[in-house]
Amino acid sequence: MREHPEDPEGWAFGEEHAAWVRSRAVEQGRWRRVRRRIRARLREDEARVSPSPRGRGEA
């Protein structure tokens, strides 16, 4: 994420696709796991920055 801050998930997807083109299933699976972890981390960061309205006493 540090090396590609503008779109880390897109970068990982490109690496996953490249592994698919080269028929390297193990490498493709590794990049898929990396992409999932990046997506989860980005969602955590979003949740930290913008809490849900329910958390502020609103219904």
Give the tags.
0% strand; mainly alpha; single chain; 59 residues
Descriptive overview:
- 3% of the residues are buried.
- This protein has two helices and no strands.
- It has one domain.
- The termini are far apart.
- The protein is an all-alpha fold.
- Helix 1 packs antiparallel against helix 2.
Tell me the count of domains: 1
Judging from the principal axes of the Cα atoms, what is the shape? Answer: elongated
Query: What order do the SSEs take from the amino end to the carboxyl end, as H and E?
Result: HH
Strand content: under 5%
Please describe the topology of this protein.
Layout: H1 8-21, H2 25-49
Brief rundown of the structure:
The protein has 59 residues and is mainly alpha-helical. The chain is 66% helix and 0% strand. It is built from two helices and no strands.
